Amino acid sequence: MNEIVPVVEMTDIAIGFPGVKALDGVDFRLFQGEVHSLMGENGAGKSTLIKALTGVYTIDSGAITVLGEPQRFSTPGESQAAGISTVYQEVNLCPNLTVEENVLLGREPRRRGSIDWKDVRSRTREVLAELQLDHIDPGSLLSTHSIAVQQLIAIARSVEINAKVLILDEPTSSLDADEVNQLFRVIRDLRDRGVAILFVSHFLEQVYEISDRMTVLRNGKLVGEYLTRDLSRMSLISKMIGKDMEALAELDQAPARTRAGSGAGATPFIEAQGLGRKGSVSNVDLAIYPGEVVGLAGLLGAGRTEIARLFFGADKADEGSIKVKGASQKIRSPRAAIDKRIGFCSEDRKEEGLIGDLTVRDNLVLAMQASKGWARRIPRRVQDELVAEYIEALDIRPANPDALIRNLSGGNQQKVLLARWLVTHPELLILDEPTRGIDIGAKTQIQKLVNKLAADGMSILFISSELEEVLRVSDRVAVIKDRAMVAEINNDGVSVEDVMTVIAGGAQ
Amino acid sequence: MSPLSTLTPRTLKKPSPARSRLRGGARYAPTLATVGLFLAMFAVGAGMYPSFLSGQVFLNLFIDNTFLIVLAVGMTFVILTGGIDLSVGAVVALSMMVSATLLQQGWNAGAVIVLVLLIGGGLGLLMGLIIQYFDIQPFIVTLAGMFLARGLCYVISLDSIPVTEGFFTGMAQAQIPLSGDLFVSPGVLLALGIVAIAFFVLHHTRFGRTVYAIGGNEHSAMLMGLPVKSTKILVYALSGLCSAVAGILFSFYSLSGYSLAAQGMELDAIAAVVIGGTLLTGGTGYVLGSVVGVLVLGIVQTFIAYDGTLSSWWTKIVIGGLLLVFILLQRLFARKAG
Ligand SMILES: Nc1ncnc2c1ncn2[C@@H]1O[C@H](COP(=O)(O)OP(=O)(O)OP(=O)(O)O)[C@@H](O)[C@H]1O
Ligand SMILES: [Mg+2]
């Protein structure tokens, strides 16, 4: 085959949505046997470019060629048939079907017109084994698996297709290092077999590890195409955010932790003793003082989210006790938690119930109104001010309060979710993976915001798979292992390695 | 950011096999509950009226409800995609009117049947196209379809038209003997054949799996490259076709065409599907469950007939109660599974 002809070539692509120019004159080339990263901030247009290629959106102008042929797919089905396999940013599978059905949906092997379920099972086993996911039962319902596993199953589906082009839009956002390695092994393998791979991630580390080439987008416009080895991290970031190096230096600074902290003798806002739940987590002793950030560190699946759910009453604790402001309390439901001014920004954006058909303003106002009680309407002027304030604080783009949630980019939806909890001014805010899918610029902003909230007296429980981030924002770190709390570390100059040792050894 | 910043090995929470099997089994639970309910009702009936416990009473449940079984099959497809079809009762009536009128004018029975199937399927197809291309709620479109079909009945005739044609009367009287003195009607075989085909299509063809996928998450199904549009349209065409078949079966049964016939039958069909364990939100359910749902409705009617003193309105009241119970049951299961 000819190395010079790109497998996919998109020239001068433009797509506009009412009020936004999502893509404007973007060129993009993808070659056989390369891993190509598409880089850009939240809302830069990465997912839109992918959807333009695969026929989810129709382009306003420009040309697309696939394997030398001009193409304009009108449905994802057509692009799939042409050899383009895609994992979209949102995990897109059917929760009501089994794992094996999801992996092969639409391509089930047939014998004499009837689906050969035996073959479905063995092919699913095969591809799961290739990703070292043998422990997943192909016959189990998709909805019984965590988001991370669902993401892996979506990837399994995409590599099962014998594709010439593999597109992965933030496939690693909820995976941990081990699974990322697994995925990268498969990606390299496919690349060596000549598959062209388009990769999107906000983790620069991963991007530098896997990609040969990058295309950078900013505000829907093309910044340029570069070889990974020619582009330093700093210049990549500056190309993405469009600021020069000085501005970047500030970005990279750890936010200064200035806060009241837990004065001796003060009452913790919340204090758990021996808290646990059968089959979930056990033995959680944790106190969070006003104005303090406590981080939860541990492997995925160690029980971090479960602890958060106990604090929020999403699961009922059946052992131990909780004190809120020194008084013994039972938190039986989220409703009860909210009444005690506890907020929980969960890792599951869809479940969390951002209302996609409402605007950014509506979502924020609903939350505000719900926390104030429905009797007292918030005047429109106050609404506008507050909404504008949060849009600015979190840099939600487009900065248009009337944009529909479902039209926002993935990262910007995450920001709205966060804003929705912030407007209710909880006294304890539980943040479970608040920066998932968020670009580096906004990530630092959110970390700073966490600091500021704590400085203003809020208690914060911060959960993240990125240990570095946990250490950046937390005053104390609780280490969770095998569904129990094993250590508590004061964060004074603790390094990532120190915490890793505790996690690995389990010894204090 | 160091490579360490995301953590290493994961202790994946493996669902124990027993637990995942239970979860999988939860899918059948509402349908199994319906089967249990049916058996219990049959047992109670046998306890109260000794003659209840006869094979023929059981078979009559099928004979008296062939049309409802076929309607429920079409409705199952529609509801599995998360839609609804309110037009089916009216299409049954229209099919009966068209056949009765044309047969009276001396048309050949075969030609009449083909024409009726074309009308029913065509009407369904049209509704499917409108739902898909104008992106209008199925509820609204099929409601309009219902008025259209019912209106056409009145246009054809306001009076009841008897059917005296040989093939139809033959089918009405035909009995297919089973062992002993048990028998079924040819309509029963046709209806069960349709159920078998529907079962095969839903569970062993890509079209069927797409129906389930759309009910699970339509947007995902589209992004997964499934033919969402054509499947949704086809499902309404299928339901229309089933309504036409049901109309013909009802003609065999009642030997007449009447513009007010089959009033509210769409609601019986929906009730049967829901009682049979299919979720109204789509994505979960079984066509065999819908058949059991029809049998449950049938046995309620049989009860009332056996009792003799109760007004037939009790049927409606009991069905209403059952429907409520089943929807509550489904809620419960959905919450457990979720
Ligand atoms: N269907 C739509 N209607 C209106 N606007 C849209 C739609 N889809 C995307 N947009 C807008 O287009 C822009 C680009 O969004 P896109 O999803 O491509 O961003 P992204 O680069 O993938 O960001 P992220 O990193 O957050 O996933 C955003 O401003 C978004 O709000
Ligand atoms: Mg995106």
Automatic annotation (TrEMBL), chain A:
What are the annotated GO cellular component locations? plasma membrane
Q: Name one Pfam family in it.
A: ABC_tran
A GO molecular function term, named singly, is: ATP hydrolysis activity
User: SUPFAM superfamilies this protein is in?
Assistant: P-loop containing nucleoside triphosphate hydrolases
Identify the main location: membrane
Whether Translocase counts among this entry's keywords is: yes
Q: Which Gene3D superfamilies match?
A: P-loop containing nucleotide triphosphate hydrolases
Q: How does it sit in the membrane?
A: Peripheral membrane protein
InterPro entries cross-referenced by the UniProt entry: AAA+_ATPase, ABC_carbohydrate_import_ATPase, ABC_transporter-like_ATP-bd, ABC_transporter-like_CS, P-loop_NTPase
Which key words tag this protein in UniProt?
ATP-binding, Cell membrane, Membrane, Nucleotide-binding, Repeat, Translocase, Transport
Q: Where is the ABC transporter domain?
A: 8-244, 264-507
Location(s) in or outside the cell: Cell membrane
Domain of life where this protein originates: Bacteria
This chain belongs to the protein called: Putative sugar ABC transporter ATP-binding protein
Automatic annotation (TrEMBL), chain B:
Q: Which residues cross the membrane?
A: 28-52, 58-79, 109-131, 138-163, 183-202, 233-254, 287-306, 312-333
User: Where is the protein found, in the record's own terms?
Assistant: Cell membrane
Q: What is the lineage of its organism?
A: Bacteria, Bacillati, Actinomycetota, Actinomycetes, Micrococcales
Question: Domain of life of the organism in this record?
Answer: Bacteria
Q: What GO terms fall under cellular component here?
A: plasma membrane
A Pfam family of the record is BPD_transp_2
Region: Disordered; residue ranges are 1-22
The UniProt entry lists membrane topology as: Multi-pass membrane protein
Name the Gene Ontology molecular function terms of this record.
transmembrane transporter activity
Q: What is this protein called?
A: Putative sugar ABC transporter permease protein
Which InterPro entries does this chain map to?
ABC_transp_permease
- UniProt keyword terms in alphabetical order: Cell membrane, Membrane, Transmembrane, Transmembrane helix
